[in-house]
Amino acid sequence: MHEHQASQFLGLLPEGVEFWRGQLVVIDVPSDGGAAHGGGYLPSYAARSDYGCNRFAEACKPLKKHPTEYLRQLYFDSMVFTPEGLRHLVAECGVSQIMIGTDYPYPWSTTTVDHVLTTPGLSDADKRAILSGNAARLLKIPV
């Protein structure tokens, strides 16, 4: 997600758009209009949005919670290319919100599974969640 796309998404929140009632699930899907590759700008700068809401509370009045709390309700792919990038994405968004990303049909990477398996700091449970568990839970696929 580019900075302007992140701004557009965050712009939905102050407008009072209520899509957090379990009726709409926002998934970071690799597409030209999506928030592909770990959400791009959004997870790294979400704290800036929180700070802005604290500093200029009137501008965020329609929000019921901080932007980072909404961020933890989105789903992201794991295509962030470095172990540090994946560690940061987990820290900002929560492991339960991340699913394996491949960038298919583009031959961008052949090591997406290895990337998850070799990222330091991820437990075996975290790795299972990213590689299959989160998608199965979201799509209600019994495993």
Second CATH tier, the architecture:
Alpha-Beta Barrel
Task: Report on the biggest sheet.
Answer: 2 strands, parallel
> Do you know the CATH topology?
TIM Barrel
Contiguous helical run count: 6
| Topology pattern, helix = H, strand = E | HHHEHEHH
Low-confidence stretches: 14-21, 28-34
Radius of gyration: 15 Å
Quantity of strands, as a count: 2
> What is the helix fraction of residues, given as a range?
40-55%
Strand order of the largest sheet: 1-2
**Into which percentage range does the β-strand content fall?**
under 5%
CATH class: Alpha Beta
Mean pLDDT: 78
Our count of domains comes out at 1
Going by CATH, what is the homologous superfamily?
Metal-dependent hydrolases
- Summing up helix and strand content along with how strands pair, one would put the structural category as mainly alpha
Characterise the protein shown here:
With 143 residues, this protein is an all-alpha fold. The protein has one domain (3-12, 25-139): Metal-dependent hydrolases (TIM Barrel, Alpha-Beta Barrel). Helix content is 44%, strand content 3%. The chain has a two-stranded parallel sheet. The longest helix is centred in the last third of the chain and has 16 residues, at 124-139. It is elongated.
Structure at a glance:
The protein has 143 residues and is mainly α.
Question: Topology of this structure?
Answer:
Blueprint: H1 3-12, H2 41-55, H3 67-71, E1 76-77, H4 83-93, E2 98-99, H5 112-117, H6 124-139
Parallel strand pairs: 1-2
